[in-house]
Amino acid sequence: MSSTPSTSDTSSETSTSPASTAICKVCGLCAHGLHFGVLACRACAAFFRRTVVMERQKKYKCRGGEDNCAVSSTDRYQCRLCRFNKCVELGMTPENVQWNRDSIPTSRKRKDDGPIVPANDLKAMAYPDGSLFGKPRTIMDISTLSAKIKNILNEDKGGIDPATKKMNTLEIADYALRKWRNLQRSEEKMEKLDKLPVRQMFAIFEKQMIVVAEWLVQNPDFRLLSLEERYIYFKAMWNMWRRFERFEMSVKMFGNDVVEIRKFAISNDQILTKEFTIDFSEITDVPNTTVQEMFRHSMSKMHHQVAKPLLELRPSSIETAYMLTQMSWQVAGKKMQGKVVEIGERVCDELANNLHSYYLKEEMRSNYAGRLVRLMSVVNSVKKIHMERSMTMELARIFEVFKVDFSEPDIFDC
């Protein structure tokens, strides 16, 4: 099994042909990239995705009655069954729907797309060919952020802390985690936010993405991956890592208030409470309450299935590092398979041995099996919620809830 399959929304497409000359293999119109392994336009890709996700192919009937209707730019909408069958014949597979939305690299400005704009310049620009529901779209260029992350993930650039040379795997993870957490402000010095504009939320996420990259690259096993594999790994787990770390820190700081009044340290400097709202108006025309409702269920699960157990367990810094490392390798391994799974299994064995030594030497605890089971139960809950949020984001794309696309869509998958 390949260790570097396509990522959930983008892949390293290497064609040197200009995007403006690429033709959709399904209908013959201008293609916008590799979708599910086939050069296709957005409309055909969206049609295939909707059909598979909603299992519509079981209901389609050939309008011509002979299963050989023409599918072209002028009549692609006439027979849905023949259009779907052509997608499959060309190589689109239902198995790829969840994680293989590819796009031609957007670092180059294209005639047939709206211009790419910096992430801090949210101005809606209509695609000439329109989108699924005719909404104006904006492409936010995150190539600068992407380059910064890739630079950190390349240890040849000098990001390895020499203090970690004599540490074991778990000690390295803990050291790198504490190095960042030492910057956490006390509650009285933090800003309480009642409203969080989505632009400010993305700014917070960007800083935390840098933190996750710096944490990852300290691990020698992670550095066994190629630079491309490291970046795919990073995109698979950074948001899950960030979310769990912030919940664990919030529990450490605020105790039961995390569950009772939803007090949450979204960053080292800012606090959110139950009354806060995120203002999504810059990236969607959907009412704010509707967008927040999309994520309400998963956030409720984070409070009840993650924060509550953390309150009871009160994990140490070493245990938190253990959980973060476990979930990172497991989620990245599930996405990438192959070499990442092999390395991840070895890392998890090393972590188990490191944690065993920690319990015996530092905590004088020989009977820790029950506690470890509870820690791993939290890890499994975080992973499950992470996957549910990914599905929510996929549905949001299908129904075009947001009027903004990122130049690397899969980086904000969940």
Automatic annotation (TrEMBL):
GO terms for molecular function: DNA-binding transcription factor activity; RNA polymerase II cis-regulatory region sequence-specific DNA binding; zinc ion binding. The keyword Metal-binding applies. Residues 162-414 form the NR LBD domain. Residues 21-99 form the Nuclear receptor domain. One of its GO terms (cellular component) is nucleus. InterPro entries: C.elegans_Orphan_NR, HNF4-like_DBD, NHR-like_dom_sf, Nucl_hrmn_rcpt_lig-bd, Znf_hrmn_rcpt, Znf_NHR/GATA. Keywords: DNA-binding, Metal-binding, Nucleus, Receptor, Transcription, Transcription regulation, Zinc, Zinc-finger. It comes from the Eukaryota. It is found in: Nucleus. CDD domains: NR_DBD_HNF4A (cd06960). Gene3D superfamilies: Erythroid Transcription Factor GATA-1, subunit A, Retinoid X Receptor. PANTHER family: NUCLEAR HORMONE RECEPTOR FAMILY, NUCLEAR HORMONE RECEPTOR FAMILY-RELATED. This is Nuclear Hormone Receptor family. The lineage of its organism: Eukaryota, Metazoa, Ecdysozoa, Nematoda, Chromadorea. The gene is nhr-102.
